[in-house]
Amino acid sequence: MKAAWAATMLLAGTGMAYAEDTTQYHAADAPVPGAVTHLGNIMPVMMDQSSWFHGILEQAEGRYAPAGTDFRWDGEVWYGTDYDRLWIKSEGTLEKGHLSDGQQDILYSRAISTYWNLQGGVRVDLDDGPTRTWGAFGIQGLALYQFEFQATGYVSDRGRFGARVEGSYDFLLTNRLILQPQAEFNLYTKSDPARQAGAGLSDIDAGLRLRYELWRKFAPYVGVTYSGHLTQARRIVRDQGEKPGSVRFSLGIRSWF
Amino acid sequence: MRSGFPAPFPGFQLMSNSFDPMRPLTRRRFVTSLGAGACLSALPHKAQASTRASTGLLPLTPSNAWDLKVSRTHISLDGKSMHAPNIGGTVPGPILRWKQGETVTLNVSNALNETTSIHWHGIRVPSNMDGVPGLSFAGIPPGKTFSYRFRLHQSGTYWYHSHSNMQEAMGLYGAIVIDPIRPDPNACDRDYVIFLGEWTDVMPHDIVSNLKMQDDYYVFRQRTAASFPKEARDAGGAMAALKDRLAWSRMNMAATDIADVSGAIYTYTLNGNAPDMNWNGLFRPGERVRLRFINGATMTLFDVRIPGLEMLVVQADGNDVEPVPVDEFRIGVAETYDVIVQPKEDRAYTIFAQSEDRTGFARGTLAPRPGMSGLIPPMDPRPVRTMVDMGMGNMKPGESMDHMAMPGMDHGSDMKNMPGMDMSHMDMSHMGHMSMPKMEIDDPGPPPISVENQNVAMMPIDRTNSPGDGLENNGRRVLNYGQLRATRPGADRRPPSREIILHLTGNMDRYIWGFNGRKFSESGPIRLKKGERVRFTLINDTMMEHPIHLHGLWSELENGQGDYRPYKHTIISQPGSRMSYLVTADIPGMWAYHCHLLYHMDLGMFRTVVVS
């Protein structure tokens, strides 16, 4: 055991000097298989391996238009420990009784660094359009400057590829009044007219929302949102006789538990 | 007046049988002083007794046999109700007065429906009497009684608390006063326990769960657009303020991260009294009054002062120190300080204990007559963390950014040549006159940036002569650790034969805490040989204070006082600092070693120290 300790000497009069570059680091509390840190199965601390359960509805909003108001939701729930969690993400838009953009993900999430998680699982496009199933793999976390970021790549049951990139940022105007720009992009390798998806950058859903945190877990907001199709998808949507994009005034509630 | 206690407390009976016209807080006074809080008086008899909190008065004589009943009581304070575990129906529990040299017997009966335990904080006991389930014993099951029995080798001010399932965070704690055998060098006319704490109706598990989802859940003092003009003025320009913000933002950290849990949910208490209940301690002008401050909080460091009075610090963590006159001191969670004041004027003096993050304060009054109130000073500005707290030494924010940009923090062998890493702080003057034996060093090296660690203190500095963040240059004489000098030389003159370096680490964003980048459940025990003399060196890589408590063994703080280094049981490690203390492993057994911010402890900043 002694041999494993750092070969470091205290030299009289000259202060501490480390042995040349051969210093071997050794932690006094290094994990040792079979070492006893507590009696029986009684843990002296209870929560360091606990599982936690939370869910958040980032968006639950009405998007106003004279011809009819759409309802949009975007949120997730997760359950698990510091390292291993199960995520369920859900988003969709309800317009005139028609459900679109319904993307539901079930992901296993593994913490891999200070701020980042790897996520893998399944996405199902579940709405009034044709159902598609995708394998999903991506990252989620906090980029520099406290920028929330998610990027997920998908491969479909029909051998197609897609990607979704999302980001948001909280500007604190005051401690409770928070301005949040947010954007989500969807990309595909091939078009899928039945789902109004085009090859390349297909659609974008973005918003600038101003929320007031009455409580941490309950914040009404007002916002301006844009939802639209781009490039090839834009033509597809036009050909189907629909508007390819619109800016809407939105009212909603951000809440979590 | 004390008839509400369900179990016989010898000390209390003596007190209740006596009549003291100067008693500061009779029950009638308490009830009538509640004013708007009159609902308290409508509670059932026992609950009413419980909310009476503590007078801070010691039992008149020490006793060596105590029956302590742990149960739950509905307690309401400042509009916040909790069915709180406690001892004897009060929060804090009864003040236990013992006598040095005697053997005390403490019969703790558990009327909860879960396991409980009592840990005697700072008391040197055999390890099976230390009261930590999983290390000392199995805990006290529901309906059972456990008899603690140990001889008292020490004297001074200490405290006790549960070490089970966050019961301490909800109210299971109280004060211990041990009378010295030899005449007390600090004899006083009056003697009060000042037990500082917090009260909330939010359950500990919910608090931690909220912090797991949002680490600044309880912080409402962030830097915002609205606060920018003031920051710009303070920083000497908008660009400087912006640069500082970007530096912190780039690190995904907040300079405003002072306390994890704040006055947003906590009511800060003094002897169990909310500030508006105005605890009273009486004095006659000219008398010497001893105040035994105990920080029994869960997550709050307090900055204590009594405007208009000089405080003479005479004891730290139960051990006498050479008196230090101060205007203010910071008391970390689980520390104790005894101070002597001598109010000369016939007026009220406010005991003012503001939380480190300045979101609230505990308050009481020293007064010549009951019911008086002194002026309550405004709270100081909340501290703001700097690059010193990040372990960047004294670099300016602009300079530090280059270092933060180093991907993965390549801290190989060059680290050892950095000026901040030299060992000049290690009390070499003290060691100079001794032979220099080879010393084994357990150096874990800088902890890697990982899921469980957010930062590496590149240039940790000695901060023992700093009173702490928010107290520097505030115009008052504020106690610092360097001023603590024991009244007698340490008992063990041997130099350490081994050094154990530990990094205090954490990831605020995920709300994970540990040592050396690991949680408790991922770490082995720290093994000491019985009789071994060890130097513990703490490097704080986090940006928060951590009051580190070693059970069972003294921590002799190496603060430049040579052989007169103070003996402590809990030591604040300041953010970005490197400090050390000596330990003689003289009692065998398994000992808990942990941060006394309870949520840090319970999330992993905890180790088992095995002495064998």
From TrEMBL, chain A:
> Does the entry feature the keyword Signal, yes or no?
yes
Entry's Gene Ontology cellular component terms: cell outer membrane
What's an example Gene Ontology biological process for this entry?
intracellular copper ion homeostasis
Q: Which region is the signal sequence?
A: 1-19
Q: Which UniProt keywords apply?
A: Signal
Q: Which domain of life is it from?
A: Bacteria
**Lineage of source species:** Bacteria, Pseudomonadati, Pseudomonadota, Alphaproteobacteria, Acetobacterales
Q: What is this protein called?
A: Copper resistance protein CopB
A single MF term (Gene Ontology): copper ion binding
